[in-house]
Automatic annotation (TrEMBL):
Substrate binds at K189. The keyword Hydrolase applies. Pfam families: Hydrolase_6, Hydrolase_like. Its cofactor is Mg(2+). The keyword Magnesium applies. It comes from Arthrobacter livingstonensis. The lineage of its organism: Bacteria, Bacillati, Actinomycetota, Actinomycetes, Micrococcales. NCBIfam families: HAD-SF-IIA. The active site is at D18, D20. Mg(2+) binds at D18, D20, D214. This is TIGR01457 family HAD-type hydrolase.
Length: 264
């Protein structure tokens, strides 16, 4: 049983929230999202906006959110790329990594003190990119075969686009796993480590932290396993009829973040 099941949003000091499906939907702000963020700012609540997407730097994401109608400072954004970089820094400071990914991941690893190289790396780090290269995937397979540790930023098999789903990190990881017989260690949701690293960033404690998400299979289960108060909203993936398919429950179920404002 979640230790916070008898608490209310008014008891929460720190908030973690997913981005897509909670604050934004198809590049438009969800009604109530801007007001919720402003309420957190006005009441000096510590908060982070989380995303499994490793493509963008916090600066890029802040600009994209601004274009959607949301003002979120860079320091309030936490990506799977940042969580991965923090994890690797704790494992092997000043390590070496061969990276398949874009600026969000390479920048995070550089800032964590890593050397990016395809020569004798300690890690192969796989993140999101819109330009997966057969050559780079082949190099990753050979490096893992030679002993490099295999890390993935997130397990998502597909990502959205205007034309339909795109293969994402999880799909490419499966290809590499098939070729190497090595499973990656995945840092992003639903690994609770993503939330623990976020809480460390804002000096939050699990007993007074909540997670808002739109997916039972990532946001809610990871929040529950990290000991957080969990809030499910229906502006993204999971819908009311889906909840009974899971053997666990969120602490709160709301239509959208607009329904949360009055309780904070």
């Amino acid at each position: 049983m979640n230790k916070l099941s008898n608490r209310t949003p008014a008891d929460i000091e720190c908030w973690l929230t997913d981005m897509d499906g909670v604050l934004v939907h198809e590049n438009q702000a969800v009604p109530g999202a801007a007001e919720l963020i402003q309420r957190w700012v006005d009441t000096s609540r510590r908060f982070l906006v989380l995303t499994n997407n490793s493509i963008y730097t916090p600066r890029d994401l802040a600009a994209r959110l601004h274009a959607s109608g949301l003002e979120v400072p860079e320091e309030n954004l936490w990506t799977s790329a940042l969580a991965t970089a923090q994890f690797l820094k704790s494992q092997m400071p000043h390590g070496r990594a061969f990276v398949i990914g874009e600026a969000g991941l390479t920048t995070a690893l550089h800032e964590a003190g890593f050397i990016l190289t395809d020569q004798n790396p300690d890690y192969v780090v796989l993140g999101e990119t819109r330009t997966y290269s057969f050559e780079a995937i082949t190099r990753a397979i050979r490096l893992i075969g030679d002993g490099a540790r295999f890390i993935a930023t997130n397990p998502d098999a597909t990502g959205p686009s205007a034309e339909g789903p795109l293969p994402a990190t999880g799909a490419i990881a499966a290809l590499i796993t098939k070729a190497t017989n090595r499973e990656p260690y995945v840092v992003g949701k639903p690994n609770p480590m993503m939330f623990r690293s976020a809480m460390n960033r804002i000096e939050a404690h699990s007993e007074t932290t909540a997670m808002i998400g739109d997916r039972m299979d990532t946001d809610i289960i990871a929040g529950m396993e990290a000991g957080l108060h969990t809030v499910l909203v229906f502006t993204g993936i999971t819908q009311p009829e889906d909840i009974d398919a899971y053997p666990f429950r969120p602490d709160q179920v709301l239509g959208s973040v607009a329904d949360l404002i009055a309780h904070i």
